[in-house]
Amino acid sequence: MPAHRASDFSLEFVAEALQRQGILRDDDRRTAFARENVQRAKLLKDQAVRGGRALRRADLSPIELLASFQFPDARRDNEVVDEDKATQAVAHAVGLGYRKIDPLKLDAQLITRTLSRPFARKHAVLPLERRNGALVVAAANPFDRELFENLHALTGMAIEPVLSAPADIHRAIAEIYGFREQIREAQTQVGAPAAGEVPDIGNLEQFVNLSGLDALEASSEPVVAAVEYLLHYAFEQRASDIHVEPRREESIIRMRIDGVLHPVYRIPKVVHGAISNRLKIMSRLDISARRPQDGRIRTARGDTEMELRVSTIPTAFGDKIVVRILDQQVLVRDLSELGFLSDEREQFERWLERPHGMVIVTGPTGSGKTTTLYSALQALASPEINIVTIEDPIEMVHEDFNQIAANPKTGTGFAEALRHVLRQDPDVVMVGEVRDAETASQAVQAALTGHLVLTTLHTSDTVGAVARLRDLGVPGFLISATLTGVVAQRLVRQVCPGCAEDVLLTADQVADLGVRHPEDHAGKLVARRGVGCPKCRFTGFYGRTGIFEVLTVNPRLRHLVADGATPEVLGRTARQDGLRTLREHAVLKVAAGATSFEEAMRSTADAEGQR
Ligand SMILES: [Zn+2]
pLDDT tens digits, residue range 18-45? Predict the structure, then answer.
């Protein structure tokens, strides 16, 4: 492309490249030309109204301009030509690589040490990595030779440009430089963190208004701003929790996305204390206390209210902090979104229709039990029904439930709280977990006396719940009289829809699954697997879903439970009556392409081990 200059990169060039590749229809291309100036003025005005960064930028990229029309993708129904598609097509047209920027993979040190923020922003350029002695940079304009020559002069390295979507480049610049700058400023201020702010001690809620990213740049409190950057970043990456972990030399910040931790930042040791104090102040914890503490922060992401649960544990190198991000839309769902197969959901819903009895959800920590219980309570919620929850701690505040925090340390454990609650005669009681004999006895009594009781137990499968209740001293006849049903569950990662492809499982893999799958004629099973794409940051997975074993206590089982039958006998009988095991459910999900063979095996290994 020697003949091109930066100014040759125009809407005309982009639109023609897209049209030649069959992405843009010719009439849409002509519409783009006809409306170019009007559209540009409109975009600039919108940005001015929003007070956005774009005004301070040199230019609007022709790719942003074209994508703003949201023309339909001529190749695919229901898809529009967005910045990613346009950038990919332009890269193809000019013979450059295309790179979807993965914010978690950015090398913040490389970026901030190579370029100043004004330079990066002015030229919409971002160093990505050093490769074979060359510096790979993400650029928005493929023809900006002057820029590439300047970068070469600046770094002494060969420059290898790849194209990335302009919006991604600018967002990464704002976040990386913003966070870095705030951390650096904080480093110079350490020793005087947020003076004058004396936190209330306790577990009260506090609504914290997060600033927009633009306003953050102007913030005078670097630590405040840095923490807010972190939160914004986590929201944007769909992270479920943020870990701030002090080590000897520095602190490491990691975020969990779809169940997997990704390292995001390393911050200097001296800033750690200030960041940790800021999080404690936001969640109304005692900054001077050297003991584990839990607090919460209410905030908003757009229109959605978010809840952050902050827990701190003192370690040798400072407080280790975990911020769990509780998004109501994730934690409380419609029962149809949990991953039940339709017959399983029907059984579960039937249990909830009964005015009394006990419904138990089992599974290890992190298997989605709380989501199932909250979703069940939400399905039950109505103005005529009084729902009370007893939790330790309260996972998420829901306006339709009366939520009580159990706190064994202060003498109000589950059993104690339950006793008080029952005096108020609620219709539905959710007991966060049954851990001891007294709670078990109270919960069974409540279920016996006209209350619908929902709770969780730590057992790996459904019949294990019966044995566990017995271990906790509940007599078989009482279990038999109250237990309506048990759900055992796990969470599995879902195959990314953006990059899924068919794979034929080997005979060994099919054998490993250990059950006859639905179309087992030739011993072959077609599954799906994600090969990796930008949407799933090349993990092949996007989002999670539940794997369930749903046991309805039918009359036959009820007799056996009353007679003290062993879990083996209960399990065998339940299977005869059609119980689908966790593994069998997982196999159906594999066959349906919802999850992978490996996920199915991993998530159900413990339950299978007991059979
Ligand atoms: Zn993917």
Answer: 999 999 999 999 999 999 989 888 888 7
Which amino acid, residue 436? D
Class of residue 137 by CB neighbours under 10 A (exposed 0-12, middle 13-18, buried 19+): buried
- Written as one letter, the residue type at 256 is R
Q: Go through 468-501 and write b for each residue having 16 or more CB atoms within 10 A of its CB, e for each that does not.
A: bbbebebebebbbbbbbbbbbbbbbbbbbeebbe
Report the chain's C-alpha Rg in angstroms.
28
> What would the two tokens of residue 347 be?
């059984």
User: How far does the centroid of ligand 1 lie from the alpha carbon of residue 23, in Å?
Assistant: 21
CA distance 182 to 188: 10
Report the separation in Å between the CA atom of 319 and the middle of ligand 1, taken as the mean of its atom positions.
Answer: 36
Encode pLDDT of 232-255 as tens digits. Answer: 888 888 898 999 999 888 899 999
Single out the residue of 544, 547, 494 nearest to residue 361, CA to CA: 547
d(CA 158, CA 130): 10
pLDDT at 537 exceeding the cut of 80: no
Ligand 1 mean position, distance from CA 497 (Å):
6
3-state secondary structure 139-172: ECCCCCHHHHHHHHHHHCCEEEEEECCHHHHHHH
Cβ atoms 185, 222 nearer than 8 A: yes
Q: 529 CA distance to ligand 1 centroid (A)?
A: 9
Q: Using the mean position of ligand 1's atoms as its centre, give its distance from the Cα of residue 593 in Å.
A: 14
Q: Residue 91's closest CA among 159, 146, 165, 25?
A: 165
* DSSP code string of 488-515: EEEEEEEEPTTSEEEEEEPHHHHHHH-S
